[in-house]
Design goal:
The protein is of the alpha/beta class. The chain has a single domain, classed as Alpha-Beta Barrel (TIM Barrel), CATH 3.20.20.70. The protein is about 35% helix and about 30% strand. It has an 8-stranded parallel beta barrel with strand order 1-4-5-6-7-10-11-12, surrounded by 7 helices. Strand 5, helix 3 and strand 6 form a beta-alpha-beta unit. Helix 1 packs parallel to helix 2. The radius of gyration is 16 Å and the shape is globular.
């Protein structure tokens, strides 16, 4: 069985790590390069950096951040935020990113997934999906969760897989920042219906939540932010606990 991955997520705004609840009420959580180094040494399997206020003018700033992170860490890291072209991806990969995450740009132009996979390979391309459960339906949202679409989570996820994406990063907007646990029913359905890895995001509050998402949610990886940033859960302790529960992890 493949080992389950623990992935700290660093949401970046104006060069700093921030964290909010339900995608709002942001507060400062530290320097992203310092945090990246700490997490790599603490046993994180991968890192995800999301520039939540990305614009074209700031692509250079993000590339510099990626370069400095690459100097400090020896684990794979994914970068996302405002990526909408082959050129954007090229810059980030050249500066040290291992993968890129696309979200709004993929919905607006699904062919972008095919184009990026053809150029860089599916192993480099993660499609992030932010979805909110409304009246029992999981609705895909864009622009950091601000804009609802007509897309259904499961239909869009299948299309993403068919277009060649290597992984899906699913964030439940209902669960994000609540620390009440991951959206395991939706995750289990995604994991059952798709053949590519699913990263669970949104809702981590306790070690048990990670156990639950790997067992009940059938997730391949679990991503969290505030519980790691504010030292509510130490990664090494979490992994030891998961190991005790019989969940395969890298120690």
């Amino acid at each position: 069985m493949l080992t389950k991955r623990i992935i700290p997520c660093l949401d970046i705004k104006n060069g700093r790590t921030v964290k909010g609840i339900n995608f709002i009420d942001l507060r400062d959580a530290g320097d992203p390069v310092e945090l990246a180094e700490i997490y790599a040494e603490a046993g994180a399997d991968e890192l995800v950096f999301l520039d939540i206020s990305a614009t074209e003018e700031r692509r250079k700033t993000l590339a510099e951040l990626v370069y400095h992170v690459g100097e400090k860490v020896n684990i794979p890291f994914t970068v996302g935020g405002g990526i909408s072209s082959i050129e954007d991806v090229d810059i980030l990969l050249q500066n040290g990113a291992d993968k890129v995450s696309i979200n709004s740009s993929a919905v607006k132009n699904p062919q972008l997934i095919n184009d990026l996979v053809a150029k860089f390979g599916s192993q480099c391309i993660v499609v992030a999906i932010d979805a909110k459960q409304i009246n029992g339906e999981w609705v895909v949202h864009l622009v950091g969760g601000k804009v609802p679409t007509e897309l259904n989570l499961f239909a869009w996820a299948k299309e993403v897989e068919q277009r060649g994406a290597g992984e899906i990063l699913f964030t439940s907007m209902n669960n994000d920042g609540t620390k009440d646990g991951f959206a395991n029913k939706a995750l289990a359905r995604l994991s059952t219906e798709l053949n590519i890895p699913i990263i669970a995001s949104g809702g981590a509050g306790t070690m048990q939540h990670f156990t639950d998402t790997f067992i009940e949610g059938k997730a391949d990886a679990a991503l969290a932010a505030s519980v790691f940033h504010f030292k509510e859960i130490e990664i090494v302790d979490l992994k030891r606990q998961l190991k005790k529960e019989g969940i395969p992890v890298r120690l």
